[in-house]
Amino acid sequence: MENSELKAKFQEHMDTEMLKLVAHAKTASWKWFTADEIATKNPCVLVYIILTAKANATFVSLYDGVDTNGQLIGTIETTANQSRPFSFHGHIYCQRGLFVDLDGDALGVLVCWHDVPIVLGG
Asked: Rounded to an integer, what distance in angstroms lies between the CA atom of residue 59 and that of residue 46?
């Protein structure tokens, strides 16, 4: 295969991959949270967060559910005056919704997720 053919194949591959990424991003939900709140009551896939602290270190706890009685997914921390991105590369499936429990020293947290359609059998 010649160099120009390789370049064309590579460009075609990259174009296809970019279209997949754009389609994936269009289905995402996101919100900037500044207090404890339900992100969604629906089943979802947690994808990404960015936690931002005020003058003190802070943390956010994420739950599979609609409150802190749900299953703890994890707690992400960051130091004072910093932002910490965290990507869930394997994504985290939340079957009972997603609850954000934000520490008072947080400026806020950006949470990105994908709602999962509920399929009824029948």
From this structure: 17
Question: Can you tell me the distance from the alpha carbon of 23 to that of 83, in angstroms, rounded to the nearest whole number?
Answer: 27
Measure the CA dihedral 21/27/32/33, to 10°. Answer: -130
Q: Tell me, what's the pLDDT at 16?
A: 67
Task: Report d(CA 76, CA 104) in Å as an integer.
Answer: 14
Q: Bigger pLDDT: 115 or 101? A: 101
Answer yes or no: CATH 1.10.760 is held by domain 29-115.
no
Spatial separation of the C-alpha atoms in residues 35 and 93, rounded to whole Å: 23
Q: How far is CA 62 from CA 54, 55, 70, 106, 121, in A?
A: 19, 22, 9, 14, 30
Mention every residue, 6+ apart, whose C-beta is less than 8 A from residue 54: 80, 81, 105, 106, 107
Residue 42, CB half-sphere, CA atoms under 13 Å: how many?
10
What is the model's pTM?
A: 0.77
Type of residue at 45: V
| Dihedral angle of Cα 20, 88, 80, 83, to the nearest 10 degrees | 0
